[in-house]
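Tokens as discussed.
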């Protein structure tokens, strides 16, 4: 109301919500390693909430784009998706997060059983797409985008490494 959003309030809102979506996504993925390192099971109770916050900020980011830049016109959205690859990446990240938000309840976990975990692994490509979305439009200031890419890469490496170690233990126990 007093001009704190700068000369382009729509851009400021989109930047704010996009960055917070990435931050919440990073915090969501950081819960499992923190729990493994500290043993605090209380952290797991935060994971769903953080993931939903990431989706919420992603929705506000996407809906701000729809409102301020294309005016909710489907043909304009189609044109933007076709002409601007960074928008396609951001939209793809949002689309990947959509089923994760819908299936985040305990009832959906029970209903989907083992498929729930497979489905929720989509968070990693969503995170990569979101980072590339930020990197592609950053132009000269790529530091923040690279920071998030490194964070998500480290979290993915930790997860893959942990899975490999777990599989080796299972094989060793069977022999």
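Sequence:
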């Amino acid at each position: 109301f007093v001009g704190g959003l700068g000369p382009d309030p729509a851009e400021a809102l989109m930047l704010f919500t996009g960055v917070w979506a990435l931050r919440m996504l990073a915090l969501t993925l950081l819960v499992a390693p923190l729990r493994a390192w500290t043993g605090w099971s209380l952290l797991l109770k935060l994971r769903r909430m953080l993931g939903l916050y990431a989706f919420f900020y992603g929705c506000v980011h996407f809906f701000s784009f729809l409102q301020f830049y294309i005016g909710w016109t489907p043909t304009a959205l189609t044109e933007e998706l076709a002409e601007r690859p960074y928008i396609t990446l951001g939209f793809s990240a949002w689309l990947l997060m959509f089923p994760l938000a819908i299936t985040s309840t305990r009832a959906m976990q029970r209903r989907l059983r083992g498929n729930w975990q497979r489905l929720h692994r989509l968070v990693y490509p969503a995170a990569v797409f979101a980072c590339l979305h930020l990197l592609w439009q950053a132009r000269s200031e790529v530091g923040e985008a690279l920071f998030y890419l490194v964070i998500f890469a480290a979290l993915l490496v930790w997860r893959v490494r942990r899975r490999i170690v777990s599989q080796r233990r299972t094989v060793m126990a069977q022999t």
